[in-house]
Write a structure and sequence with these properties.
Blueprint lengths: L1 H7 L2 E4 L6 E4 L10 E3 L11 E4 L3 H10 L3 E9 L3 E7 L5 E7 L5
Parallel strand pairs: 4-7
Antiparallel strand pairs: 1-2, 2-3, 5-6, 6-7
Length: 104
């Protein structure tokens, strides 16, 4: 959770006494992926989420500063934006997209 706090500014609140934390990923009026984080369990595959970021370069830098690894450097998705793929410190794969209709 510390990685996601430091890189994306997410907030976490434990749900009851369980090893389960609700994740708030942004303000209510901005689309996000509010969800939760729990312990890994055998047999569950890690999903690949693509996260919104205002600046792919700054996000890539923060990922590396906080123990993550860039798997695919910033690339243009023409007329959509800039996409990177990374692994967090536990090896979970994610994407991060900076929306930019001018991307080429």
């Amino acid at each position: 959770m510390e990685f996601y706090r430091n890189v994306f500014g997410w907030q976490f609140n434990q749900w009851g006494e369980q090893e389960y934390w609700l994740a708030k990923t942004g303000e209510d009026d901005i689309p996000g992926i509010n969800g939760a984080i729990g312990p890994k369990r055998e047999g569950f595959e890690t999903p690949v989420n693509s996260l919104n970021t205002p600046n792919a370069d700054a996000t890539a830098e923060a990922i590396e500063e906080n123990g993550g690894v860039i798997i695919m450097p910033k690339m243009a998705v023409p007329t959509v934006g800039w996409l990177i793929y990374f692994k967090d410190p536990e090896g979970n794969l994610h994407g991060a997209m900076e929306y930019d209709p001018e991307a080429k």
